Input
Amino acid sequence: MTTTPRDISDETLAPRGRDKIDWAERAMPVLAAVRERFARERPLAGVRVAACLHVTAETAALVRTLQTGGADLRLCASNPLSTQDDVAASLAVHDGVGVFARAGEDRSTYFAHLAAALAHRPQLVMDDGADLATLVHTSHAALGDAIVGGTEETTSGVTRLRAMARDGALRYPVIAVNDAVTKHMFDNRYGTGQSTIDGILRATNRLLAGACFVVCGYGWCGRGLAARAAGMGARVIVTEVDPLRALEATMDGYQVLPIARAAAVGDFFCTVAGNRGVIGGPEFALMKDGAVVANAGHFDVELDLAALAALAPQRRRIRPALDEFVRPDGRRIYLLAEGRLVNLAAAEGHPAAVMDLSFADQALAAEFVLASGRELAADVHTLPRALDEEVARLKLHALGVEIDVLSREQRDYLGGWRAGT
Output
């Protein structure tokens, strides 16, 4: 009997992983509805898929849905610290998925796992951060001609792919799942907001009420984080470079400051900006003793960790996801989760009920791009509005929420240029 290629930490963790996946799937009725249809129609039959995603219980529910639709899938981690080893074991042992993911894997192992996923010669590339897509366009360029299309889960990845498209380098169409309304308005806002606070509290066990919490970036993730921090009783400061978002944060009731001023007064800092060097050496130098710093952006480059290490050379691990950096004058800065995604590295990521929407979007995007890929330009495309609305309707149905339907007269009114006469 041939064993599917894989590289996981411990196969004996599979039963625990299966329990975790079962628990997550109970809160994912939309994805269950998509899976039920996929079982009948098999829209992905025989399609080779390479997926680079956070290996969590919720991701496992997506993987099993794609398998039900007929996909032959290889999975690797999109972040070295986000893998749940028990989930990886369950997918490999119970579902026969080729999983290449180990919690805490080093950089060389991470890239070896990316290469292992691409060795599957995928026709569909599913990314969270565009690492697979980047390799397909550089060191694995020979694979590009066979790829029908791809999907991208996160803002940082969409930014990278749009840069490729702008430079004329992108070789296949990609659906920006992140830009679906049912993704960014719910996953980014409610999911990131709750799971980031969860990660910070698990790592520190500190009280947020009465503390000054600095949110760096006011996109959908920043909006959600600011709201949840305020809900915990923190005084929230927002830093921004976009005048429209800064104005929105002001009108939402938050104090808006440049990071150079916020650095001196914050107790907690969290970057969600999708850019590099959001907090650097000058800002670390201004922080007061005991400041806690975290990142909830996809890449750890949002924090200049080299500058932090140079400023505070004495370092020790205090708690599982908390490192203390001590400056020569004795002031301490606490870094969470090594500067990586704190909601996944120090907690469990978004709640399943939120990922239910995002991964339903992913499954439908995969089906759509495979059906339409040869007709789509090699560009970044938005998930069709009809599919976005389908996911919303399924979620409303699962919640027992009913909504109105336009009458024929109302549709005619909205669609006619003589409507006001």
